[in-house]
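Researcher: Here's my situation. A collaborator sent me these components and asked whether they could plausibly form a single complex. I don't have experimental data yet, so a predicted model of the whole assembly would be a useful starting point for our discussion.
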Amino acid sequence: MTDAVIRAESIGKRYRVGERERYVALRDVLANAIKFRGRAKKQSRDFVWAVREVSFDVKRGEVVGLIGRNGAGKTTLLKLLARITRPTSGWAEIHGRIGSLLEVGTGFHPELTGRENIFLSGAILGMSRAEIRRKYDEIVAFAEVERFIDTPLKHFSSGMQMRLAFAVAAHLEPEILLVDEVLAVGDLAFQKKCLGKMQEVSQSGRTIIFVSHQMNQIRRLCERVIWLDAGEIRQSGAAQAVVGSYEATTMGGTDPFVQSGAGGCFRRWEISGEGGEANVLRDGLKPLILKFTVRTDEPILRGHFGVHVRNHDNVLVASWGFDDVFVELGTQQLLVYLPFLPLRPGLYRIFCSLYNDGNNLNGGRLLEVWDAVPCLAIESPPLSHSQDAWAGLFNISAELKVDSFAESRV
Amino acid sequence: MSAPDMVIAARESHTLRIAPPIGWWDLNLGELWQSRELVYFFVWRDIKIRYKQTAIGAAWAVLQPFLAMVVFTLFFGKLAHIPSGGIPYPVFYYSALLPWLYFAASLQAATNTIVENQRVITKVYFPRLALPISSVLSGLVDFGVGFLLFLVMMVYYGIRPGVPLLLFPVFLLLAVLTALGVGLWFSAMNAIYRDVRYVVPFLVQFWLFASPVAYSSSLVPVKWRWLYGLNPMAGVIEGFRWSLAGQGMSPGRMMLVSTAIVLLLVVTGLIYFQKMETTVADVV
């Protein structure tokens, strides 16, 4: 036996269009049976595949992220693995006790007290009574609701309900845990606490499949990422790479000019230096090097190399051009040394262009323009105005001092 | 199940195969047994919630059969003079109303349970059978409370049940199975066709008249009595009367027919329910 705890083999789920919106009335069924007797079967256009031909393995102890746009089939895939719904085709095998957390507060009832809800929700999520009793104090402490534990849930604030619900869920101990976007709720401090708990869980050797739209969460928690697009796997692999290319396609803005020509092409890029690594810039105030790997099919003499950076609104925020560039034939690295890159945190696209025999103005020949993949993620601690609308383009620290007028004149 | 068997079952339950539903018998009874604590929690929840917002709480469980008994005694007994075979009217009616009201309430609860729990069903997996089973079991608590009043009546009327009382648990089990068998059918149907829930109250009303609650099945000619047993509640109710009131006729052949029907209902109900179960999260 391999150490794969989950093995899915071209698993698929087909829904009838509109099936989820409307339920059937017995009356209609009877009426239809009379009206349409002998009619041909439903046409295939009435069906839609929410998940199609998806195959993957998950090893013991792995934390796998599931990303994709809304409606890409992430939740359906989790529901298939959790056995909430049955596949239409394919199969999956699961070795180990599996628990799912598709919403916070599954089975909560407003009339019951906090204590009663802990037991009820715990049981529905798959804990035994003895297990819940053992963890009860821990759950209550985690949720920080000791004082209200014997009050009906309907008198809890929504934040308290959320904390209690997550506390129950966080103390589930299945060998495999399926989690769907449940951390998107609650206040920031509690989110951090939950994330910590999840990390603790994943370090204890349990297998987790985790759906999120928060790419930073995915980056922090997952080693491997599966990107679903329209029900099928678009890319699967190391978290950084998959998240990078996912972000690159979902970023707004139209391509200004992407062109791939003969003569040379960019292969990859990365950040090195004190400020960051891979495609992530952690401190924009430290020196950094942007390393671009390029393969040239012709020697470049007096060429031009341009780099420009655009933000999520497609605004050109930084740009550098180098003339009289000489690049030998073959695979080469172009290193751009920057003293700092103090842009506000977020995702940026980097475009590189390479010309031979001049630049864009003096008759140079364009070899390639590359929309760099993955995109640049700047994760510097935010230093500018705390409100997004006023944060501006730059991320530079500032200090305020108030001097009295009289003194400043001296 | 012997000990080694159980070890194997436990180990197998850790490898799970997820595949499209095939065949007509896909029921995992071992898994259902493993989730017996969940059934307990569902029952506990139903009861807690049922009485949490009522003014007189569990007294309803006594008041309901008691008032029905008073009405039946007055109208069917004292006015219509329905023959009761020598049993005092209050005892005659109460002993029939207990299983009947249990059946009617459990059937309604089971019918709605899948739809009422749709939020949970679409968010987490557990054997769906736990739901109708707990609806049927939570009705037993009300039944138990109502039964206490019957004990008081037995003392008051000096009823001394004889040997048939030993069979009472069997009749009770049959009542539970009847509620379960019919409940499985209706809860599955209601999940798919939502108008079923409007049909059930009517059905229960007609069923009441087709069952020997207001009258005794001795009114049915002997040669048709086995046919009357096709209504499983006929066997159950007569069984209750016979074993509790210590008088009247033993249900005999009618009982056998009823038992057979109940078993048929439970088995077909399980099959139908389990067919619905594979798609329920997509339709509710």
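Model: Some features of this prediction you could bring to your collaborator: DSSP finds 13 helices and one strand in chain B. Residues 89-116 of chain B form the longest helix (28 residues).
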